[in-house]
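Good day; I would like, with your permission, to put a structural problem before you. The record follows directly beneath this note:
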Amino acid sequence: MNFTLAHIDGSARAGLLVTDHGEIPTPMFMPVGTQGTVKAIEPRELREIGARIILGNTYHLYLRPGTAVIEEAGGLHAFAAWDGPILTDSGGYQVFSLSDLRGIDPDGVQFTSHHDGSTHRFTPESVIDIQRSLGSDIMMVLDECPPYPCDEEYAARSHELTARWAARCRERWEATSPRYGASQALFAIVQGATYPALREASVEALVGMNFDGYAIGGLSVGEPVEAMYELTSLCTGMLPADRPRYLMGVGTPENILESIERGIDLFDCVMPTRNARNAMLFTRTGRLNLRNARFASDFAPPDAECGCYTCQNFSRAYLRHLVKAGEILGLQLCTLHNLAFYLWLVGAARESIAEGRFRTWKTALLRRMTRGEAGGAERKR
């Protein structure tokens, strides 16, 4: 993996992340394909709207269909028919959020499957082995994501455990090799809850281990948004400038723009796909709730400035009809638009950074987007 910066505008960065499965211009949004698929959209469509990297999840893919099946298929790229880069999360967050019965110790974590109640165990070494079997371009270390709120003593223990696990993940990564002929990078995850001193300690410990990139975890879990921004700035101010920075699980378009301004390169979030399946669309002039009755006879496109297939061919009224009728096509078209919007957002951010006008562009766009629910666009001919 190679990462280079092409432009810096304040703290905002535009760069290029090169993997064996393709190049990723940054900042970039990564659609979430937890179980080897981005919900309600085809890989072909992802390529058409400009997706350059997608996510898979170690926890879910380990439980179903299992690493043996994916190995037999030739790795996750072949199994999912996606030839671009893939990042896999370690599954740590899912262990702590989905399993009702779990036990954590210095060696790892034991948990029950949310599918059938069977018992399993993750260690730093085993999650590296699983991700070797998946063949992802970017692997993540096993970490513990502390809940919000939590006391400082708990957060300190969690950060220290995450740092020890990161060191063990790196040792296992160095002792093993990729299985499918493509290199695999390893990213660490900064923790420390909402305590600045713990965040600083986490960054210092992980940077000392010299990872390929660094993620900031444990944010967007309920803390005030200003705390998220302050901690993001703290971390990016300490992380090495020559490594990619990934803010995990964030977030709204506003969150993404504010975090780009603070030096973040990579994002993922289920929000565009989940909201689409609930008839909520993101546009340049605000959010659309298609369940609102006022869209029943609104024949304008969802976003008059959007070039995606949905906006070029279908009206708000038609999409609302599909949603109300429970038609699968409605989920597909809404998902296509929301992901196209997110990918446009980071692409436009890259362009504005290259031109040295990011803050001006961001301020103007946020002003448009926060005026409220999108309304009267020109009617579709």
